[in-house]
Amino acid sequence: MEIFGIPHQAFLGQLLLGLVNGAFYAMLSLGLAVIFGLLGIVNFAHGALYMLGAFAAWIMLDKFGINYWYALVLAPLTVGVLGVAIERLFLKHLYKIDPIYGLLLTLGLALIFEGIFRELYGVSGQNYDVPELLSGATNLGFMVLPNYRAWVVLVSLAVCLGTWYLIERTRLGAYLRAGTENAALVQAFGINVPLMVMLTYGAGAALAALAGVLAAPIIQVNPLMGSNLIIVVFAVVVIGGMGSILGSILTGLSLGVIEGLTRVFYPEASSIVVFIIMVIVLMIRPVGLFGKEA
């Protein structure tokens, strides 16, 4: 049986693998969208925070014997605390000036983090084993799907949809959105806006770290893993619409699938298809597919 002239096993296999990649795109672009949408910061440190999450999980296992299930909670919390420190020490001084300074600052922090871990661990990468409970694979008939990759997709979807619901459909989310649009008015009602801003950046950092922990058993943990992925993720955010949380989720999943199918039909274009789509979208709708007009 063939689909568009391609054996159905290859077609459906790449479709599922693309969905796994899309889950990572969605998780990372979600954190970027939260930080930009609520704080107006183009966070170039996001790839480094993703890398730190993966390294935190590996160090916890290698040095302290803390397994994957505990690391899934502790690593995002650790990186989230680092994110809070970054916001309090650096970013809070930049909110009232040109956003380019926030971009340059976070880019500098990303390079510092990457340089430190390259010096400590090199670039060869560290192995992180799949937890025993999620080892093995399931035969779907048309392909054998590793159980861990299925877990990644399920967790990513749950986290993405939960974050969207929290920000768009709850009172806390309404306070966050109002605080970023008119901080003085919201503070007049007794709400601590600086605290909300600080925790928002910390939560965005924790989301990046969670994606790093999920990625650790799939790819080797290395200092360059964030910089290799963040450019594609920024393209995803631009296509979905800067600051659009739902747009980032849907676009991340969709582009992962499109990238996977491109490997079937025209492998040479699989590494650039996301950027081609970005150019086309910006020509037709500069604010992105789900972005709001100014």
Word description of this protein:
The protein has 294 residues and is mainly α. The protein has a single domain (2-123, 140-284), classed as ABC transporter involved in vitamin B12 uptake, BtuC (Orthogonal Bundle). It is built from eleven helices and four strands; from the N terminus they run ββααααββααααααα. The chain has helices at 8-39, 46-64, 68-89, 99-121, 147-169, 171-181, 183-188, 193-215, 225-240, 245-265, 273-284, and strands at residues 2-3, 6-7, 137-139, 144-146. The strands form two sheets. A two-stranded antiparallel ribbon has the order 1-2. Strands 3-4 form a two-stranded antiparallel ribbon. Helix 1 (8-39) packs antiparallel against helix 10. The relative contact order is 0.21.
Radius of gyration: 19 Å
Q: Quick one: CATH class?
A: Mainly Alpha
Number of domains: 1
Helix content: over 70%
CATH fold type: ABC transporter involved in vitamin B12 uptake, BtuC
- Tell me which CATH architecture applies here: Orthogonal Bundle
The best one-word shape is globular
**Number of DSSP strands?**
4
Strand order of the largest sheet: 1-2
**Could you give the order of the helices and strands?**
EEHHHHEEHHHHHHH
* Nearest-integer average pLDDT: 88
Total of DSSP H or I helical runs spanning 4+ residues:
11
State the end-to-end CA separation: 49 Å
* Structural class designation: mainly alpha
The fraction of residues assigned to DSSP E strands is under 5%
Spans of at least 5 consecutive residues with low confidence: none
Largest sheet: 2 strands, antiparallel
